[in-house]
Amino acid sequence: MRLSLPFRVQNRHLSGLRAHEKPLRQLAKPRYNGSVLVEPQKVKAEDAVKTVKSGDWIYLHHAASTPIDLLNALAKHAKRNNIKNITTTSALIMGNNPFANDPEIYDYIRPKVIFTSPSVRKAVNQGKADYIPIFLNESGRIYDTKRVPVDVAFLNLSPPDENGFCSLGVNCDMSSPAARNAKIIIATINKTQPQTFGDSKIHISHVDYLVPEAETPISCVPKAAIKSAEEEIGRLIAENLVEDEATLQLGIGSIPDAVLSKLTTHKNLGVHTEMVSDGIVDLWRKGVVNNSKKTRDVGKGVMAFAMGTKEFYDFIDGNEDILFGSVGYTNDVDVIATSHKMTGINSAIEVDLAGQVVSDTIGKSIYSGFGGQVDFVYGSANCKDGKGKSIIAITARTEKGVSKIVPYIKKGAGVVSTRAHLRYLVTEYGIADIWGRSNLHRAYELIRVSHPEDRERLEKEAFERFGAMPRRDI
Description:
The chain is α/β, with parallel strands linked by helices. The protein is about 25% helix and about 20% strand. The chain has 2 domains: about 10-210, Glutaconate Coenzyme A-transferase (3-Layer(aba) Sandwich); about 230-465, Acetyl-CoA hydrolase/transferase C-terminal domain (Glutaconate Coenzyme A-transferase), CATH 3.40.1080.
């Protein structure tokens, strides 16, 4: 007897599939061998990874969902049996994993990441691991188009419901496209992984090797402390740039949380974002966020992944008002641009006086990744209703007292958002609106929101760079 779907897939367009190639799997449909429902082979983690051979490409469920048990078992298997030239692909690798703890593992496994984390940052900058610069909206397509193969996918799934449907939990992102193109799926069932909805559903019949109970919980991220400068940035953005009924994109950390903490009197806000964290929960519970005025996915908050505390994951678990989509949908520039009053809030490492935004490097050293900044910067700025806002928010100085507004970007640094992308730059000293402004006017506005002690020096350096003193055009 064939099993019918126990739910309606609320948004078929959430699949984000944009390639012509046919995927190997339809994850939200049970898999049959003839008329017989396929059942996974239940094994221990150390036995599951024995299917991995030299030269294999492995997709890793990542960020909070990093499959620590499988990674640790793989490291032991590779070293014990001299299995080499294994490549893993993922975004953030988190938790107590072998890449962070065992320098010898890089002789056997080479991670390729689209976003570096402390686990692999040193290895990337030493040439032992690789960084892939890519717009987040395109990261799923590298699997759909088979540009990056998936011989094996390591997943960390939520427990199945009574009909055998698990979910990718808090990491749908590029994990959904990777899983549907995987030749073999190895999964752990993790009781701490929230059950989520949208494009994150996967029927257990698609799992080839199943570890019935993960030993390691998914990773939690504590709330960031909000300092006075960040609180002021939050106030400036909330009072001046976020309208009632706005659709929000923001991430994790003290500045996004500061913005959210200042939105308590706003009305009918919506969420369409690549990621979100604890800061949104209070607004959701109070009804400030209700997603009622969105142009798509009305009544639902949409995200690709989430990171936060256990309390945040408990809020997500079984919450049908939250949909998880692959990044091909959440970060699609057209989807973003057709959202109601789309307001994107992102951050940066440094911004030069022409408006170039550096977000993934410190000088030549890879620090993080492109993420979805450009997707939302461009989509928000080009919102079809003319009411979108694209915001870069930074403190004027680093914790060491170094200006983040600089005359030139550091040697070797990579630009994520170009000077033509930047609309608003917000620091604790004000809002710089630089769209359509000349170099001299841009420099004037950016210096105006820099730290007061840095302004005279920046004016002199602007003169040296542009041949004239910064000034307003209008």
